[in-house]
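Incident log, support desk, overnight shift.

02:14 A customer reports that sequence design results differ from what the structure should imply. Their input is reproduced verbatim below. On-call engineer (initials T.W.) acknowledged and began investigating.
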């Protein structure tokens, strides 16, 4: 059976870091809405210009647009064994659309990485991103170049405190209700995102294993 994982959590919870680690373990693609949209921004497409303006104010892309983009990506051949969604769904409306799309495509495993707002602000104050490929920097603060492509690391435009606080407001208003939407499911699990990165990874693997059994084992 496919392993279809949805990663939830506030900005700065470590969803992208964990997704990169876990998709290597499970042999499924990491589908990041942030990466998809950054590619559009970098290409300078009309969608990219629209998305850039929205992101820089700390708002979210409209449900219909982002749902269409994600469902097209999930339908790609490399997602036949499953996928890990990072950054989608962000609203209950998006979640309902995803449920409808996933009918007969396998269950969704929901992983919530919990983190306090104080910890979110602390983490994002020092977060860096590659100016070339858009990858998040690793935890080593002494490194000034990207571990993937060697590009220069710069502060994220959407990590300024004012923007972060607005993103948290949006998260509380629109995204946090997803916990209520998903939490009654047998395939929902919650882990402490304030732990060390390795500990968070291990907790996710244990929780997903408990939900799905053999489907969460590493690829052959």
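02:41 Re-run completed on a clean worker. Output:
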């Amino acid at each position: 059976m496919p392993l279809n994982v949805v990663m939830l959590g506030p900005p700065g919870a470590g969803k992208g870091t964990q997704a990169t680690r876990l998709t290597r373990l499970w042999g499924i693609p990491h589908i990041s809405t942030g990466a998809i949209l950054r590619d559009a921004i970098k290409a300078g497409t009309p969608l990219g210009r629209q998305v850039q303006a929205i992101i820089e104010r700390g708002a979210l892309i409209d449900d219909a647009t982002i749902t269409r983009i994600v469902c097209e990506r999930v339908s790609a051949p490399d997602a036949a064994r499953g996928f890990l969604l990072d950054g989608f769904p962000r609203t209950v409306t998006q979640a309902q659309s995803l449920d409808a799309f996933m009918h007969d495509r396998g269950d969704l495993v929901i992983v919530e990485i919990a983190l306090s707002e104080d910890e979110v602000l602390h983490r994002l104050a020092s977060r860096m991103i590659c100016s070339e490929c858009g990858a998040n920097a690793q935890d080593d603060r002494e490194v000034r170049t990207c571990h993937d492509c060697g590009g220069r690391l710069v502060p994220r435009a959407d990590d300024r405190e004012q923007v972060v606080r607005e993103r948290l407001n949006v998260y509380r208003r629109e995204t946090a209700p997803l916990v209520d939407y998903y939490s009654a499911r047998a395939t929902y699990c919650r882990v402490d995102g304030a732990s060390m990165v390795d500990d968070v990874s291990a907790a996710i693997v244990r929780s997903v294993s408990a939900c799905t059994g053999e489907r969460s084992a590493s690829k052959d």
